[in-house]
Amino acid sequence: MADGKSFSMRVKEEAAEQISSRRHCQIAELAAMISLCGVGIDKKKIKIQTENVCVIKKCFTLLKKTFNIDSAITVRSGEGFRHHLYILTVQSEERVREVLEAVKHPVIQGLDPEAPVDDLILQRNCCRRAFVRGCFLAAGSVTDPAKSYHLEIVCPTEDKAKQLCSCINSFWQQEEGMEAKIIARSKSGGRRSFVVYLKEGNQISDLLNICETYRCLMEMENIRVEKEIANSLNRKLNCEMANMVKTINAAQEQKNDILLIEERIGLERLPAELEQLARIRLEDTEISLKELGEKLTPPIGKSGVNHRLRKIRKIADDLRAGKRYP
After folding, report:
1. pTM score of the predicted model
2. Domain tally for the chain?
3. Is residue 223 part of a domain?
4. Residue 251 belongs to what domain range?
5. Is 80 part of any domain?
6. Are residues 233 and 252 in contact, defined by beta-carbon separation less than 8 angstroms?
7. pLDDT tens column, 269-282
8. Which of 29, 47, 189, 234 is the most buried if burial means most Cβ atoms within 10 Å?
9. Is residue 203 within a helix (H) or strand (E), and if so which, with residue range?
10. Tens-place pLDDT, residues 215-256
């Protein structure tokens, strides 16, 4: 964890640094943050409230760059607040209307204040990118990729979640395994929120790329490579261990068959090629079938050894069943 900050916080800080040079993209990102962090918005007041200082700084910067508005910021803390609460307000009725008209806020259009962002804001690919970044900044989080893969963005309404989900999925064009999903989550007081989430490493990496958080993307990709190498080594080791156990068990079964034959009828009654194999196997139960074949006179291959061992197994099984050996 760099500087004691979580991976999620580092992603947000890098996302906050990304300022699009295009005004329409700046408006799309601001629209996202107003949609998910705006409270009590009307035609006279814009109020954005969050516990994340990155969101307030980004909103302040976008309002200044896009509209030349110096908004007021207040900080609340103390009893009743787990963290500092940052509140940005714009109260000039003229400037409020200018911003709300630019972001096509539903209040200006006489719609439900909780309606999603107007789709006209999201027509360009670059604007959808800025919108997704703004949504993650406002209400997103991502787990440390060294521990697990999970990214989510919490939306107050299902319609807003569906809009964000559709926006993210538009970058993937129905690629197999690349799809953001939504789950409803109960909150205190019987309310519900709707969470847009990703649970695959490649999905999260791609979303970091969409948000243009390239430093964090590189950090995550390095971790993914390290985890994949470690997983590959573990798989290889587990496979080798399983094969070793299988070989040891098979050798022990072969030894048991040979000992049974030796006890019941004596190895000398076996055909010469089977007797030779049986005696070598009794001497060394750890060598492989290939090595076993190389010790025979004349040497034979692995398949030939297997064929002879099957014959020995058949004789042992017949003796166990009470059959007489010819």
Report:
1. 0.72
2. 2
3. no
4. 236-320
5. yes
6. no
7. 999 999 899 899 88
8. 29
9. helix 201-210
10. 999 999 999 888 888 888 888 888 888 888 888 888 889 999
